[in-house]
Amino acid sequence: MTDSKSHTIDTATGKEAPAEISEERVLNIFTEIAEQYERFNRSSSFHQDHKWLDRLVELAPITSSSRILDVAGGTGEVTFAICRKAHPAHILLTDYTPAMLEVAKRRIAAGDARSVNVDTQVVDAQVVDAQKMPFEDNSFDVVTMAYGIRNMPDRMAALREIRRVLVPGGTACILEFSTPPRPVERAFYNLYLKWGIPAWGQHYTGKREDFVYLADSIKAFPAQEEFCDMLRAAGFGHVAYENLAFGAVAIHTAVK
């Protein structure tokens, strides 16, 4: 089982390194690509990203009274999927990068955060470092996160913080790129990470190197079972995952 003690890594390699290396890089990269982030996700996933987010919402036990924390929520894609499909009482959309949240706030103002059936705004946005969150214990019923945990240099700290702010019995739902279990699909996926992701990034932003990092961070992220061990080491129970896209993407669920 993964050691429960925190240690910081270089998120591009998975090797131990000072947190500042990854934090500064992530802040710079996502500031630069914030305006094109959604279009990049749509194209690079071959328009599958909305299906993955919808499945994340289906697996989250959200009710009309749920208080939800969306961690590393970026430009709001998870939050807006929740608004469309689940109609909770409130969502707090958070991200480490202010520029990403600025895009989300414009979308909130334009009405993207309105529930399909309830013409009220249920979303607030706040800049937050998920590795040290400014919230009270037992504050949220559900915590969601997509494509965020792999960019955090102290992942165990983030997972423990997520558990801390959940109510007893609350659920964490984490969507992340992962490792296809079958060799042939894994080989094709690795080729796509090496060549396809940087090419899409060059097309949309002209910043190929930013997307070389994103591909490297995906390859360095723990496979499904290892990440399950990390969740258990953080104190979660009922840990499970569901593979999507042949295992290139996985949704992990865990209960406090």
Task: Chart the SSEs and their pairings.
Layout: H1 19-33, H2 37-44, H3 49-59, E1 67-71, H4 77-85, E2 90-95, H5 98-110, E3 123-127, E4 140-146, H6 155-165, E5 166-177, H7 183-205, H8 208-220, H9 224-233, E6 237-244, E7 249-255
Parallel strand pairs: 1-2, 1-4, 2-3, 4-5
Antiparallel strand pairs: 5-7, 6-7
Task: Summarize the structure in words.
The radius of gyration is 17 Å and the shape is globular. It has one domain: Vaccinia Virus protein VP39 (Rossmann fold, 3-Layer(aba) Sandwich). The protein is built from 9 helices and 7 strands. It is 44% helix and 20% strand. Strand 1, helix 4 and strand 2 (90-95) form a beta-alpha-beta unit. The mean pLDDT is 90. Helix 7 (183-205) runs antiparallel to helix 8. The protein has a 7-stranded mixed β-sheet, with helices on both faces. It has 256 residues and is of the alpha/beta class. It starts with 18 loop residues before the first helix and ends with a strand. Keywords: Menaquinone biosynthesis, Methyltransferase, S-adenosyl-L-methionine, Transferase. It comes from Denitrobacterium detoxificans. InterPro entries: SAM-dependent_MTases_sf (IPR029063), UbiE/COQ5_MeTrFase (IPR004033). Methyltransferase required for the conversion of demethylmenaquinol (DMKH2) to menaquinol (MKH2). Pathway: Quinol/quinone metabolism; menaquinone biosynthesis; menaquinol from 1,4-dihydroxy-2-naphthoate: step 2/2.
